[in-house]
Fold this sequence. Notes:
Layout: H1 2-20, H2 29-50
Amino acid sequence: MLISAGAAVRWVSIESSMRHGKPLPLPIIVPLLGLGGAVTAAVVIILIALN
C-alpha cells in the first residue's frame, strides 16, 4: 500500500513539474525501500546468529 501511495504522489508531482517546466523531483521511495530492506536483513541475520 505504501508503494502504491508513494507512486501516486510521485506521479502527481512529476506531472506538475512537467507542466511548469521545473526539474523532476528525486525519487524518495527507492532509498526508503533500500534502507528498509537493509534493516530487515540485518535483523534477520542477528536473529539467526543468536539461535
